[in-house]
Structures are given as structure tokens and as C-alpha cells.
Amino acid sequence: MAETLRRVLTRGGAAWSGEENMPAAGPPLLLLGTPGSGKTALLFAAALEAAGEGQGPVLFLTRRPLQSMPRGTGTTLDPMRLQIRFQYPPSTRELFRLLCSAHEAPGPAPSLLLLDGLEEYLAEDPEPQEAAYLIALLLDTAAHFSHRLGPGRDCGLMVALQTQEEAGSGDVLHLALLQRYFPAQCWLQPDAPGPGEHGLRACLEPGGLGPRTEWWVTFRSDGEMMIAPWPTQAGDPSSGKGSSSGGQP
Amino acid sequence: MAVVLPAVVEELLSEMAAAVQESARSTGPRSLKFLFGSSATQALDLVDRQSITLISSPSGRRVYQVLGSSSKTYTCLASCHYCSCPAFAFSVLRKSDSILCKHLLAVYLSQVMRTCQQLSVSDKQLTDILLMEKKQEA
């Protein structure tokens, strides 16, 4: 999933080089950020990207129906015509049931599995073993879909978790647990590269498969998401590697 | 999506498998024991006693069940590190010194050695097996 997200973030910027045509979704990705940091929007952009690639349907799980369809990155893709299936498990128990019975579901296997609001499902069950089982089942479900897609094809997995400014001890435990299971993470936080500017800083750690890279995400008044590589400043030691408009290899 | 084990663990598992299959158990258990402690010998015992079952359904989804020493059955996922035993919960999730519990180690050993019981169930039965691991409601 990290690769799909990277393509979203890279493509959202300037023109991208067409050689980025990897079918692989990459390792499971955890998307983290405080409330309002754009996780749902980014999740949805990844859904549009994957569905647009035509690799297979996308399954989007969230507790409540989205208030409005987040706008993508100025693409002309119509979400209604793409194969994005929404399901709304109202409780942790229902989410368990959905994941445990995923192999019974008819129809083609999804090429991407997305879950928004994991923190709400984890909050219901404070037991670490239950939390671990839920997280492990997410991976197991994606692995099963990968198997059904056939050789050379993978089902990506991307999960969004809301963090708080001040983490409670339960949150810290869950985060440690999640980092064990999700090799790739993307942190979203309100930040701006210069004074008087607004937006979010997206920091993608692909989990050992490449360098950390960062982008600047802003939302226009009509809700459209604009993405640009985080501008590197002279002497900024945390700048990502290369911010050419050709995209990351 | 395969389970990703540290390279050193994979190597050791292969050496173990070779050693056990040649019935030369002198070198294998020692090196495993160094990494995993007493879980290693216990895991070997589980493999010996044919305690590991690979359960699969027509959908292709699979899960492992291990008959533990106390006659309790534990569920291990096939695609990532998870075991329903209390040792996994305690030592792997809370502390981080143990890499694997003995049941997961036994599962990986049986994969490398290609020896375990096989059981076919219906898709519905597999769902129930997976669901059962959710703490009992009733």
C-alpha cells in the first residue's frame, strides 16, 4: 500500500514520469494523524488511484458513511463509476465478523482494502490481545485477497488511525502494536513550509524500502486536495531525498 | 504477502530442518535454543507430536491450530505473527524480548520441514474457527 500512496502523493504534484507503472501495492501502510489532518481524504485519494488503475475493486471500510465524497487531486475520475465498495461495520464485533468471513464473500477479490477510523474499533476492546487479533486479521484478510487475485498480484492494505495531541497509555500500546504489524507509516500533521502558509505535512516512511519522503498537502476552498513535494530548504537536515517533479523512483 | 522473518531466523530454521531430518539433533536445538530459549525445545516437541494442523477451506484461506501442552488448542494465523496463547500476548506484545511463542515457532518449523496435519473444512466452518478467537461473548 505504501507504493500506491506514494504514487498518489507524487502524481498529485507536478507531472509524473510514466515509468512509475508498478502494479505492486507495496507493504501494508498505517496512516496516522490528529483529527482533521486529512487522513480520510488521503485514504479516499488512494482508493481513487487504485480503482482508476483497474486492478480490481476497492473495499473501503469505515464506521459511518462519509458525509461527502472527498475530492481527489483534481482528477476527472468519477467515484461513482469506479469500483469502490463501501461497507460500514458499526461495531468491533461486526468488523471481526466481516474480516473472518471475507473468504465467503462472492465476487472478485478487492485489489485494495482500506479502513478508516481504526481507533474507534480499538477503543471498544481495551485488551491488547483483542487489538492484536483485529490488526492481524486485517493483514490476514488482505493476504487472502492477494491469494485470490492470483500470482503476481497483491491486495494492498491501508489503515487510518487517529492520534491525539496527548496520547494516553492505551494509545501508546496500540501504536507500538500497530508499528509491529505495519512496516510502512505515513504521518500527517498540520504544518507549513513558510510563514503565512497553511496545510499539512505528510511524511511517508516506507518501512525500509526507501528513504523517508515528505509532501505538502493543502485543500482548496472547494475541497480539492493539492499536493506538492515538501520544499527542501538549505540546511534542512530532515528534507526528503530529491523533490524533482519527475516523481520518486 | 508472506511472513517476514529476520534472515537469521530463516537460516536457523532451515538448518534445524536439515538437522532434524538427518536425525542429527545435536547442533540444531542448541542454536535455536540460543535465540528462543526453552520455547525451541518445546516447539520441536510439538512438531514431533504432530500437534500442528493446517486448516484450509475451498476459498484457499488457511489458518493453523496447535494442540498445546495443556491440551488447549491455539490458533495461529498463516499470514502474519499472531497466536491466541497467553504467552504471545504477554511476552511478545508487552515486552519485546521473545520473538515468537512456542506455537508460532512450531508452525514455522513445520512449514520448513513440510510436515503437519491437514484438515479441510467448509468456508463457513473456517469463518467460525476464526471468529471463535474473539473472546467469548456468552
Any descriptors?
heterodimer; A: 249 residues; alpha/beta; nine-stranded mixed β-sheet; 6 helices; globular; B: 138 residues; alpha+beta; four-stranded mixed β-sheet; 14% strand
What is the topological layout?
The complex is a heterodimer of chains A (249) and B (138).
Chain A: H1 2-11, E1 29-33, H2 39-52, E2 58-61, E3 84-87, H3 92-100, E4 112-115, H4 118-124, H5 128-149, E5 156-162, H6 169-181, E6 184-190, E7 200-205, E8 213-219, E9 225-229
Parallel strand pairs in A: 1-5, 1-6, 2-3, 2-4, 4-5
Antiparallel strand pairs in A: 6-7, 7-8, 8-9
Helix pairs in contact in A: 1-2, 3-5, 5-6
Chain B: H1 7-21, H2 28-36, H3 39-48, E1 52-56, E2 62-67, E3 73-77, H4 86-94, H5 102-112, E4 117-120, H6 123-132
Parallel strand pairs in B: 1-4
Antiparallel strand pairs in B: 1-2, 2-3
Helix pairs in contact in B: 1-2, 2-3, 3-5
Summarize the structure.
The complex is a heterodimer of chains A (249) and B (138). Chain A has 249 residues and is an alpha/beta fold.
